[in-house]
Amino acid sequence: MSKEILIVDNDEIILAGVGDALGEAGFIVSKARNGLEALEQARRHPPDLIVTDLIMPVMDGRHLCRHLSQDPQLSHIPVVVVTATIAEGLPSAHELQEMGAKAYVAKRRMDAMVVDILDIVQRLDRAEVDAGPPVMVGLEDVRPRVIARELLSIKRHLDTLLAALGEAVIEFNEAHQVVYVNPAGVRLLGRSETELVTVPIASVFGDPIPAAIRRMEQSGGREEFEFRYGGQVLKVTMTGLTEENRPAGGVMILQDISHVHQRLQEMSVLNQVTAAFTSTLDFPLLLRLVMEQVVELMKVEAGSLLLKEETGELTFAVVLGQRRELLQGLRVAAEEGIAGWVASTGEALVIPDVRKHPMFSTRVDALIGSETRSALCVPVKTAERVLGVIQLINRTDRTPFGEADLALLSAIANHAATALESAQLHDQLLQTNQQLLEAHNQKNKFLSQLSQEVRTPLTGILGYAELLQDKRVGSLSGRQQQYLQNIYGSAQHILKLANDLLEFAQDDVGRRTLFAEEFSPLAVLEEVSALMAPQAENKGITFSVQGEPRLPPMRGDLHQFRQILLNLVSNAIKFTADRGEVAVAARLRDPGTLAVSVRDSGIGIRPEDRQRIFDPFGRGQNAVARRIPGVGLGLTLAKRLVELQGGEISVESEGEDRGSTFTFTLPVTPLAPVFSPGGSSPGTPSPPRAGS
Ligand code: ADP
């Protein structure tokens, strides 16, 4: 029976010449144009002998030999390599050994080559070639070529690079079959190169690759994308190859970027966690959400957050995992188990096998019927103290916890600590605020009760004093009159104090309802001047009131306007020595604003006191030093009332003993919302009015 010979060469002339000669010699000849075609044909129909060229596109003779020798169906087929590079000493002795060909024939004149090949075929038949080193023939007819040697060494260098590359490289031909896979590709795909070569690339990878190849062929450029392969995330860079302007397949470089993806996912969870921590103060809910994310991200069977109590004990605040309800709220002694150790030392623990660990306590496992294998436990701590711990149990894929897990969980725990601390501070602040508010209210209640109580008997004292002064119950001696005057003055003073206190104590002063009615500011000025004139007179003070003649009527809270004026005028008289001067003037600053100033020639105000005197209980140093009575509420009230109506109050003083001028402004028409006296707005409670 005739022997079948497969001839492999990309040179058509050799293919035809050698093929014809072998055919004439009685062999059945089949032909292939490169190693890949040859391998496919051989797999379909194994020949008795393969005669192959060495340097060919797509797959060269060396690779063909390797794939043949690794394929159990084909490894027995003898190979004869016909090569033009044999004269250059290539393949080297070592490569010849590796290729495992039976004989090497130098490429030269066709007739000489055919004679050599036929001779070798016969020697193979007679089993003369089997043993010993490979046969080499025709070497004497060819000369080494420097350029070929250089090209071959460049190719070898590239081959070495590809083999050493960390990235997977896969080459495919125009029919989208795998032509070459480097060792990194073999590792990545978990299949040998021989298993992969000639296989359609679509059956190696799923859909995304053929689709990308089509896109690449259409655009003629590069494609870059990521896709999932098995459990990995691969980044693919695909470049098209051309040969004489025709598409000739392409090369894919695949990088396993699963770890980058995992890190990205972790970063995004960390981000979410941080955002969540700052977004709500519903802390129990927040901690639960964060723990859920941690457990999912880190792929663990169970996770819990334990908070440290003041006693040092730990309480399970959030528990995730099987039978969690049994643990919720459970307390752990200060140094019990891994969590206790972490909480008391503030150090994290990564434990691959807890059963061998001296600190492991079996209590929880016994309680919920679980089996802790490995654990990761980190403290939730600020610079000063440990607030609790986060503990993760058993990874679902049974791998032990590593340094990366520790770093991620520690970062989350740090954020948790900051948030936990600020939530606790916030709670404390709320509590303190509440207490302060209560104390404040109590104080105000006390002050208003006190002033109410004081006012009633005072009104009596003043009434009786007036009766005596009017001489309705008989005449008084000069001295008696003087004493009565003192009694009257002191009682007036106490009444003013009581009134100021009462106004101040109404803690809703700032929110008090404004009443609007029309009144003439000039009329109020005169009313106040009549009221205060006797006091001024007593001290021999020149007291004048000057209103711009055509001051328009204004709308506003008459009571408050009077109160402000009274406070300023009575201060002016009080802080001016005998025979001084007090002048009140009112004018329009602009068509919408009334400005009233109260000027005196009194003790003046030191620059450093100018702000303070408007604060509650703030008094000028010179007033205190001179023992001028007062509590420091009159200006506070005046300022509040002025501002409440949209005005401003200020003071000018050249300094001590150089007099002062207080000026306040008020809008001529009030700011909304206001109510007319008499209850134009039914149901609105009347504001409290303290008598002056
Ligand atoms: P009191 O008069 O009860 O001290 P006020 O709040 O009315 O409270 O005044 C606060 C302080 O402002 C006074 O103690 C005083 O030091 C200073 N002050 C107020 N009015 C004058 C003024 N006309 N001349 C000098 N100092 C003044």
Structure overview:
- The structure is a single chain.
- The chain has 692 residues and is of the alpha+beta class.
- It is 43% helix and 21% strand.
- The chain is built from 20 helices and 24 strands.
- A six-stranded parallel β-sheet has the order 2-1-3-4-5-6, sandwiched between helices.
- Strand 12 (300-308) and strand 13 form a beta hairpin.
- Helix 11 packs antiparallel against helix 12.
- The radius of gyration is 52 Å and the shape is elongated.
- Residues 676-692 have low confidence and may be disordered.
**Distance between the ends:** 138 Å
Mean pLDDT: 85
Number of helices: 20
Number of strands: 24
Strand order of the largest sheet: 2-1-3-4-5-6
List the helices and strands and how they pair.
Elements: E1 4-8, H1 12-24, E2 28-32, H2 35-44, E3 49-53, H3 61-70, E4 79-83, H4 93-99, E5 103-106, H5 110-125, E6 135-137, H6 146-164, E7 168-172, E8 178-181, H7 183-189, H8 193-196, H9 201-204, H10 208-219, E9 222-229, E10 232-243, E11 246-256, H11 258-279, H12 283-297, E12 300-308, E13 314-320, E14 331-332, H13 337-345, E15 349-351, H14 363-368, E16 375-381, E17 386-395, H15 403-469, H16 478-505, E18 517-519, H17 521-538, E19 542-547, E20 554-556, H18 558-574, E21 581-590, E22 593-600, H19 621-625, H20 634-644, E23 649-653, E24 660-667
Parallel strand pairs: 1-2, 1-3, 3-4, 4-5, 5-6, 19-21
Antiparallel strand pairs: 7-8, 7-11, 9-10, 10-11, 12-13, 12-17, 13-14, 15-16, 16-17, 18-20, 21-22, 22-24, 23-24
The structure holds adenosine-5'-diphosphate.
Adenosine-5'-diphosphate (ADP) is lined by residues 571-572, 575, 600, 602-605, 613, 619-620, 623, 630-636, 660.
